[in-house]
Every structure is written in C-alpha cells, then in structure tokens.
Amino acid sequence: MIPLEIDCVRSQFQEIILSKRSVLLFGFGFIGRHVFHALRQNGVPIQAIIDNDTEKQGMKYEGVPILPPLSFLGSDVPVVIGIKGNYRPILQELNSLRLEHIIPHSFPLTLDHTIPFSSPLTWGSDSRSKQSFLKLDMIHFSNAARQLKLKESERLTLRSVDLVVTEKCSLRCADCSNLMQYFAAPRHADFGQAIKSLDTLMGAVDFVEELRLLGGEPFINPELDGYVKYTLSYRNVGAIVLYTNGTVIPTETQMRALKHEKIFVVISDYGDASRKADEMANVLWEHGISAIMQHIETWQDCALLRCYGRTAEENRKIFQSCCMRNTPSVKDGKLFRCPFASNVAALRAVPPELNQYVELINPIESANLIQGVKGLMGLSVLKVCDYCGGRPNNAFTIPAARQAPHPLSYTRFEEERACG
Ligand code: SF4
Ligand code: SF4
What we know:
- This protein is α/β, with parallel strands linked by helices.
- The chain folds into two domains: 20-118, Rossmann fold (3-Layer(aba) Sandwich), CATH 3.40.50.720; 156-399, TIM Barrel, CATH 3.20.20.
- It is 31% helix and 16% strand.
- It is globular.
- The site of one iron/sulfur cluster has 14 residues, from α10 and α11.
C-alpha cells in the first residue's frame, strides 16, 4: 500500500535518514540529480538509479549504477521518486513493478543540501516555504495514488489546467515564456467568459490535479478573489495554485479568499525585479496561507516568435522534449494544449489555421467535448510548435526576468498565410 498521508510519509523518510537505509532513486533527469545530491549529502546510501532511458542504462553516476526498472521487480528497498510532474504514470509503473515503499521527491528536495551544478530551482530556505511545498506535493501524490484504483478508460484526468486571468503584468520580461512582452494592449480576462469556460471544462473532466491561476501578474486583476472563490467550488480539483512574480502585496479581500487548504501561492523570486517577494511571503504566511518561494535565476530561451521551418520529425522531437506539452491553458473561451499555443493565438502571432483548441463557450454535446479534450491531449505534436523555440527540461540558459523597455514587436497574422 502506498501511504497517502504526509505525516506517514514524513515518518518513513525520517526513519530512512536516521537509519541510513539504502534507497533506490527512480528517474535521473534534472530533478533526479537534485534528489541524488540531497540524499547523498544527508548520508542516505543510493543502491541504484532506475531509469527508463536506455541510453542511460548501464552507466554509472558517481559510482552508482543506472539500471532498467525490471531489475528491481518486487524489491522491498524504498524508492525515492526523482521526477517532478505527473505522479499518476510514475505510480502506475512502480505499482506494476510491485514497488510499494515510495517517497515523493519533495521530501529529499527540502532537506538542506547544496547542488554541485547550475540550477534555476530552489524551494527557499524558510521552513514555511518548504512545508507549503511538501503539502502541495503530497496532495498531488495522494490524489495520483487514489486514482490508481480507477480504470484508465473510465476517466479523463488532467495533471494541470492554466487559467490566464490577465495579460497585464507588473514586469515586462523580455523572455517571458507566456509571451506577455508582446501584448501592446494587455487585458484582464473577461470574468464571465472565463468562468463559463471553466464550468464547461470541469463538467467534462473527472479530475484536475492542479488548477493554476496566472497571467501576467494575477494579483493585479481586481477580480482575483472572485476567481479564487469560484474555483474553490469545484469538487474535482486537487489544488488551486496562483503564480506571482512577488511585486504586489495581496489586499485583505484577496487574502481572505486565499485562506483555504486547497490554495497555494507560488512566488517566483527573480531577485531585484521581485521587489516585494519576501514581504509578500511573510504576509501570506502570517495569514496562514500556503506560500512557496522559488528563487529563479535562469530560464529556458524559448520566447522568440518566428517560424522555424522545421521538418515534421524535427517538430515532433521539439514537442516530445518539451516540459510544457501537457500543460493545457484556458484562454478566451478555448482550451489549448500549452500556454504558448493559447497566447500566440491571442496575439495572432501564427497563421490562424495553425491554432488547435477545444471550444468551451459555444454549446457542445458532452460526449463530443470529452472526445475533443482527449483528442487535444492525445496530439503528438502541435502545428504551432514550428513557431516555438521549445522547452526541453534541462535548458535553463538565459538570465531570468531581463526587462524590456516597451512591448516587443512581432509579425501579426490577420489572414491565413502559411509558414515560409
Ligand atoms: S513576471 Fe515576467 S515572466 Fe512572469 S508573467 Fe510577467 S512578464 Fe511574464
Ligand atoms: S508550442 Fe510545442 S514546443 Fe512550444 S511550448 Fe507548446 S508544446 Fe512545447
């Protein structure tokens, strides 16, 4: 049985730390390396690394072998997950290997440790940030474990859904991956339209693990408390997460709306640009609101708008390596597969025939809607990928939050024209 309560997992992990019991590390990408060093520096021996990537199998990392999953069928050695993202397929795989003593990645990541390689991610040194991070991760872990009992064919579950509540931002980052730097006349979302879109979507899907309210800067939308209160009424949402750049202190009204166990605020701390990040975190914690500080120094270089003219196979590879390919985004009454797709459509930065989405405003039969969402989430490449630099997991190469003095220009497509 996979434990579902945070205290239960915490005590299991503490027992591993105290007894220096060997563990297996499952997954060895970017987060896996973080987890590896956190475990090592806290004295936990790593017996082996398990990874599905055949190119890594047979290699060693700092003396620890990297082996295929089947090598550990039925093992009773505890498994620490080294992957951030969708727990459901991970737990399905571990379940099929009859591995049951499982620790989510948040527990080692919140141990004190230093990372011997360049990394854009830290979870903040404040224990309240770490506790909020653990709590959110455990919500995802527990929900994924509970859903293992449902048959795949019976459910439509989304790992996350983004709702873009505003295009307005208190910063103008030249490399914003959500493309806010290109909006010359940014708008708040139409509240009625956004809520109707969400109602349609939430009525069609069985479960959304994380509903994300973002922008732009969500805290400058005067209707933010209304969004928070309304989205809390959805019973099929695991957690509601607001992403902010740490420049705006929430109002008392917003704070009252945010005080709920399902609500989390992630503060992206870009150093000097996030001038009120510490103050914001303290205010939220003082009000009993779960807030997670993320210190971010580097970004992926992915916000240039141009037609790359790649081959179909090249675009498929871009898509397959993209960390945002399963991050559907609701904007202007439609569901898109990723934030790039929703925002290039709003900007008209790609020929209109390349936009792929599910209509959420016009009435549509429930069965067709479900098929539409499944179809969108089943695509193996998007037509707009050819206009996107791509977001591979390990490519954090440019300084975060460089500011642009004015909105950036781009080619606007008013009529149907093909790439090239
Ligand atoms: S803070 Fe920067 S990265 Fe975040 S939404 Fe605003 S412009 Fe984009
Ligand atoms: S357009 Fe394609 S490559 Fe770009 S973020 Fe979306 S899925 Fe990833």
